[in-house]
Amino acid sequence: MDVLAFITEAKSYHERSSRARIPPQLRQQYPIAFLDLRKALDTVSRAKLLQKMVNKGINTGLVRAIRDLLTNTRMHIDDQKFTTYRGVPQGAVTSPFLFNFFIDDLLFELNTMARVKAYAFADDIVICCESTEVAVRAILKADTWCLIND
Question: 89: burial class by Cβ within 10 Å (0-12, 13-18, 19+)?
Fold first, then answer.
């Protein structure tokens, strides 16, 4: 899993309003980083996912049920069948939830950085920052997280 990042500038809500009289010091643009974790759902380490669930105190029965759900999964391409050992099932209702659980520690790390707020759904992450330098640091943190969690 690796990070594809894009940084853009966003104007504050007040600046976009034509009726608002905003002091010049509040008229600024804020960098927003859009991250896409490539092949994210396909490359989740199932062992790390289950360990993260145990570490968070998730009920043992639920962890076993998810382990059973992820064990011996098969993929069909044309007439060929493959057993998969990584990732969460594409198209399954549980997959976005499981992936969000998997990246919860990344979001926690990003949100504890000064002047950063991160939001995610599945493999799409948006990071709002105070400066471009902070955005770059957040992207580097996400890249390091990917290396550790691969």
Answer: middle
CA distances from 69 to 52, 94, 149 (A): 16, 10, 21
**Section 56-82 average pLDDT:** 88
- Per-residue model confidence as pLDDT tens digits over 118-149: 998 878 899 998 888 999 999 999 999 988 99
Ramachandran assignment for 76, one of left (phi > 0), alpha (psi -120 to 50 degrees), beta (any other): beta
- What residue type is assigned to position 124 of the chain? D
Q: CA dist 126 to 7, 18, 30, 134, 136, Å?
A: 10, 26, 13, 13, 13
Cα 32 to Cα 6, 50, 99, 105, 138: the distances in Å are: 8, 32, 22, 20, 11
The answer to whether residues 52 and 104 touch, using CB atoms and an 8 Å cutoff, is yes
Amino acid at 36: D
Asked whether 5 and 21 are in contact (CB, 8 A), the reply is: no
Q: How much is the pTM? A: 0.76
Within a 10 A sphere around the Cβ of 61, how many other Cβ atoms?
8
Residue 136 buriedness (CB in 10 A; 0-12 / 13-18 / 19+):
middle
